[in-house]
Amino acid sequence: MKLAGMASNRGRNLRHVADRAPGGAEFSVILTNDADAPVLDAAAERDIPTEVVERADGESREAHEERVLDTLDGYDVDLVALDGYMRVLTETFLDAAPTTLNVHPSLLPSFPGEDAHEQVLDAGVSVTGATVHVVTEAVDAGPVVTQEPVPVYADDDAAALKDRVLYDAEFKAYPRAIGWFATGEAEVVDGEVAVEADAAEAFPIRRIEGADRAADLRYGENPHQDAAVYGDASCEEPNVVAADQLNEGAKALSYNNYNDADGALNLIKEFEEPAAAVIKHTNPAGCATADTLAEAYADALATDPMSAFGGIVALNRPCDEETAELIIDSFKEVVVAPGYSDAALDVLFEKDNLRVLDVGGDELGPDVVSETHTDQSLVGGRLVQERDTWAPTESDLEFVTDVEPTEEQVETMLFAWKVLKHVKSNGVLFATDTETVGVGMGQVSRVDAVRLAAMKADEHAEGKDAAGAVMASDAFFPFPDGIEEAAEAGIEVVIQPGGSVNDDDVIEACDEHGIAMAFTGNRTFRHS
Q1: Distance between CA atoms of 367 and 22, rounded to whole angstroms?
Q2: What enzyme class is recorded for this protein (predicted)?
Q3: Cα-to-chain-centroid distance, residue 409
């Protein structure tokens, strides 16, 4: 798509669009009605042809517009983009020119005109923004193509607000709108704008999210980094941001506490049975389910009590006194649960700096999960994906070896997979019954993840080891070497996605060692 830009001053939006080339749109020409306009130099720097068509003294608007049209007629133009073009266009221009867009520094129809920022501040509103609209003879009243909001802060003046609206709203909205027209996803039909791209769907063309600062944090991941936590008041799922900290005298949560507590809470939501998990640096140090919460916690802790030191405890049932007694037996940073008995609180409050969080909900399990997507910030944007809520059932498993697992081992396989979903990739996990035995996380080599899980099981686990355990892998084994390491550790069953070109070699290695193996058909990478 070829563009004609029209500006009377700096044309910063036009420059930004030229640099972005949304949808492949390119400027054929930039025209101004002021021979001294800085936009001329900016266009020359970008090798964009320029034209100056000034309005002569006493010249009518219509006559001036005819000369502008004559000038543009020498260029290939599919869309006209105005940016601070300080003339009201008449039907003389609009009827003859291609679709013409303008960007206005407010959320129209509120605050039209030249002094939008002053109007916003005088009105005392908390949100303003930018509007891209089709230009008509009515000033700032043409059909809206898209809008972008920005907050208004209590100490804003017009200059500060103008900068924020430009960089955070206009620079987003204008390229978006032009890109839609360039790719055919937007068009003007019978005086109305039809935008095919801007529809409600799982991954919409744009995301607008509001969050309120819930707390300033002492620092971020490290003391030299400033940090804050923001909350989404619309989230219905029990979460650590909205949790009540019951021992108000204890120090507030840190950045890392929030991150780890969120990971621990998400893990224990996987299970309908009483479950406990200990998290360290967002990885499970141990997890278990059992008939009672105290048994589950004891089994989880026994996986790696050394690594659990200073960790985060999450429970999916209200904490009772017996479980509380076990928790305070070693140093923990935070415990998070859907409630506490009075006796449990008396025990937990004995530790001055153990933060006690109540997320509510009574019993936590898969049915409390309501957030369907997760996101991860990047420099310059965000990654958004569906939340990984899938876990295999027995009917999903494809048994591929000569030896088949027992029903008890199948139960362990399904348990292990749910925990493995929360282990950083490359991740390998050993489990027996419904408790973890060893965890190998965050390795760049899958065979090293197996070795780490085996080392953890043999050297750090209390009262359990890898002999006879189930091994779960978050992605396929590309070679049989991972199976060889597992066999040496005493593994008897493997659950993994399958799908490697060397699956046959991996199956053969299992058969040689009498190991049962099942494929899930899905992997469960976790990189953040």
Answers
A1: 42
A2: transferase
A3: 35
User: What's the farthest any 2 CA atoms get from each other in the chain?
Assistant: 97
CA distance 314 to 275: 8
Average pLDDT of span 64-90: 95
Give dist(CA 183, CA 280) in Å, integer.
47
Question: Could you say which DSSP state residue 223 is in?
Answer: T
Q: pLDDT by residue (tens digit) across 417-427? A: 999 999 999 99
Residue 226: predicted pLDDT: 95
Identify any residues that bridge with 382 across adjacent strands, giving them in sequence order. 377
Amino acid at 306: M
Kindly report the length of the chain: 528
Q: Which residues are marked as active site?
A: 104
Whole-number mean pLDDT of the chain? 95
Q: Is 453 exposed, middle or buried (0-12, 13-18, 19+ CB in 10 A)?
A: buried
Q: Is the backbone peptide bond immediately before 497 cis, with ω within 30 degrees of 0? A: no
Give yes or no for residue 391 having a pLDDT over 90: yes
Q: How far apart are CA 153 and CA 471, in angstroms?
A: 54
Report the C-alpha gap between 493 and 515 in whole angstroms: 5
DSSP structure string for 51-92:
EE-PPPTT--HHHHHHHHHHHHTTS--SEEEEES--S---HH
State the amino acid at position 235 in one-letter form.
C
Q: Residues near 167 by Cβ (< 8 Å), separated by ≥ 6?
A: none
Domains of the chain by start residue, with CATH: 2-195 (3.40.50.170), 249-367 (3.40.140.20), 393-519 (3.40.140.20)
Strands 311-315 and 398-399: unpaired
Please, which residues bridge with residue 311 across strands? 332
Q: Summarize pLDDT for 467-510 with one digit per residue, the tens.
A: 999 999 999 999 999 999 999 999 999 999 999 999 999 999 99
